[in-house]
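quick one before i forget lol
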Amino acid sequence: MNAELTYGGWVAERPVETGGISTLVRFVGGMAAAVGIALASVGTGGELSLERLQQGVWYMQHVPAVVEIAEVELIRTPSENLKRIREVLNPAVSDLATTFRVSRQSVYNWLNGEQVAEGNSAKLQDLAKAADVLAHEGITVNAALLKRRFTNGMTLLQVSHAGGSAHAAALLLVQICKRERAQRERVIARFANREKTPETADFDLPASNDHI
């Protein structure tokens, strides 16, 4: 994602971590442009003239600076990906072992930093991205959601187990959850102003087939 915003006066680059995505922010200030213009001739054997300096000052005063923002993927280790999965999805260790076709002990070893095979490392990264999506969208993850079959009759963990993209499945799950939330809100709004049925004098009388 690229964006341009007005800023001023200096140049800096720094990564900003935002919930699983590292954003590289480059601030390009007017001062940098002014210095660049002023020194343009010096680098080619020219002289730093008053005219050059004036051009640089004019540029700084009249041309707005920009901020270039580019999203770059946050690089995590397999152990960090696994911790992110457990933090957001909170699956049972046995379910994780089944998902990655390993023993429970292997899952614990991964948490402790033991090397992970390339195939499972890619799966961990993909499932961690799915966790990032759900967390970013504010989807409440509980046992019922993890057991929900929503794509080709599979749960999120089953998609990963089968070698599919858990990240893509999570994007679909977000859309489903948002649509259901909107439907619930419409129903609530529809009945919010409905008047309650007034109580009658005989509301507590026994039914006609009750024995006295």
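fyi The beta strands are 6-7, 11-18, 21-28, 65-73.
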